[in-house]
Design a protein that fits this description.
Low-confidence stretches: none
Strand content: 15-25%
Number of helices: 10
Largest sheet: 8 strands, mixed
Radius of gyration: 18 Å
Structural class: alpha/beta
Number of domains: 1
Distance between the termini: 30 Å
CATH class: Alpha Beta
Number of strands: 8
CATH architecture: 3-Layer(aba) Sandwich
Strand order of the largest sheet: 1-2-4-3-5-6-7-8
Order of helices and strands: EEEEHEHEHHHHHEHEHH
Mean pLDDT: 97
Length: 276
Amino acid sequence: MPTFAAPDGTQLAYRVIGEGDPLVCIPGGPTDSAYLGDLGGLSAYRQLILLDLRGTGRSAIPDDASSYRCDRLVDDVEALRKHLGLPRMDLLGHSAGTNIATQYAAAYPERVSKLALIGPSPRAVGVAITGETRRELAHLRKNEPWFPEAFAALQAITEGTGSDWEAVAPFFWGRWDAAAQQHHTAGRPRNQEAVAHFAADGAFTPERTRAALAACEAPVLLLTGEFDLNSPPVSAARFAEVFPDATLVVQPGAGHYPWFDDADWFVATTAAFLRG
């Protein structure tokens, strides 16, 4: 597994899958990139460069825990671009990783050719997702056998009276079968220090980020699932308004991991955008 040095000297690792033009991929979590797999077969069209965020997977634990902060992870992405020798790059982020990718595009708009935000988290641009929005979206799953218990947990979380995130997990997949449950277990963040520092004070400056993105001329794809409680379509639509050239796509029947729910649909849509 190849490695490179971050600006603070931390050794970071990445995986390379497929052939063709490179696509740098930033996982959510914060966690390592293993749960992304080959993004449902997107590696048949592009060479995927899948970063293990610092302190996860085979990337080293930094000496300074504050370097786990989202805005500081932007420096790791820029170091990876330089390491790869790419004057410009196509960039894909998933979930929390879209906050890193968004802030990277704000800081280095001239370095981004295309930007794909999958299951986009709009925190970096200050778009709030209300508990009411999440509960309304959750009701689309009311006929699922697991719905009563999962919705009760969701209602408690959104009202500030509960924290049983395991109980709401079924909402994040288009189908809550054995494969989805296995994927959920494998993809959970293991470095809780990285999780705790990711959104620390100063990690997000929404007004500054929104202003900077006005200079980002790269085409942007925001792809979210019809059932994605993390990235509801209505919130993703508001996120898309921030960019000068953005396309919002809602994948039918998908949750927060659209390449897992319908790989063919996801790959066809994402590959077409990247071909541009």
